[in-house]
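Hey,
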Amino acid sequence: MTAVAILAAAAEVDAGDTAWMLVATALVLVMTPALGLFYAGLVRGKNTLNTFMMCVAALAVVTVMWALVGYSIAFDEGNGLIGGLGHAFLNDVAFTPRDETTIPHLLFMAFQATFCILTVALVSGAVVERMRFGPYLVFAGLWSVLVYAVLAHWAFGGGWLQELGTLDFAGGVAVEMGSGFSALAAALVVGARKDYGRQALLPHNAIYVLLGAGLLWFGWFGFNGGSGFSTGNSGVLAFTNTLLCPASTLVVWFALDLVRGRQVTAIGAATAIIVGCVLITPAGGFVSPGSAMLLGALGALPSYAIIVWRPRTRVDETLDVLAAHGAAGLTGILFIGFFAQESWNGVSDGLLYGNAAQLVWQALAAVATPLYAFVVTFVLLRLIGLVTPLRATEREEALGMDVVQHGEEAYATGEGAILVSTEDGVKAPVPVADPG
């Protein structure tokens, strides 16, 4: 790019919008280690590091895949089903604004990368405490291209859902429903933990969970607020709704906890924050603040019901990604079809404001997305499983994934510990005496 071209591009970029989007990108990126903290607190202590590392792995593998081919499949023109390869290896991704945005194309790409990273990390919550780390790395890279990038193209990369008129402000399709229904498929393929249904598998650190949830909510202001790609009205509306909707979800969740068990639990409160943030993700820039609060209240009900019901089944979807993300994302997508208001969003009304067609387009997304995510994830994991075992052995699972997969522990087993290889090659911690 010549100096003249660079100056011309700079003249088309809005400095204020670019500054906000730089901040929003950083906010969304920090959501992945925040998710690691949230997830790590929900598992047993012996799996703390492995659970966190599954999120860290997404930062590495998915970022590379996104730059190589994922971004192009999501946002190159292509056709209604899949983008082309015009932006593979970040070809033609530079300083000029993309489409109608006022931020550099390179920054747009980076912002979208953080969404893909987080979504892959979300799916890991379905298989923690028993999936081997190597196969997970392979799955993460392939899933980011074959599932996430395709769904992103459908919803906001110029694909068929966007062309029909489906509204999705910040990722109800690719991020929330995509992760939730993929998590269900992953749990079915990998199978239940060896102790599932035989003993209580309880969170080991509620403080981690609460802190992780709080940091996720903080990052979500960039996630939703940044999806307007400017400091204009849509971003401001989404930012404000990201405060109001989770707060309403928390209030209803407290009430449900009190009715059901006469106690408000910390784990429940943290879960409610996540559900509320997910609910408003697709709707943030399309509904009024009052509607956002209603969405938070109503949307708590199906997610809460699934979380209560799921442990009674044989499906060990470990950290309830389906309930917190799949169901909540689907609820948010459908809510737009009823409550979208053109007077607030400048785009379209929903059914309650005279536009029945909007509900049809939203319903199409609510059917097609779960079906695609579930089927492709199921097949992908089956194929990986033909090449290498997906899960640890029962002995490895009993020792804990931290020691077996990483040779480390989050918490010391005694005054000190060394790791030794047993006869079957599994590294196990052996306490050592204090030399003093």
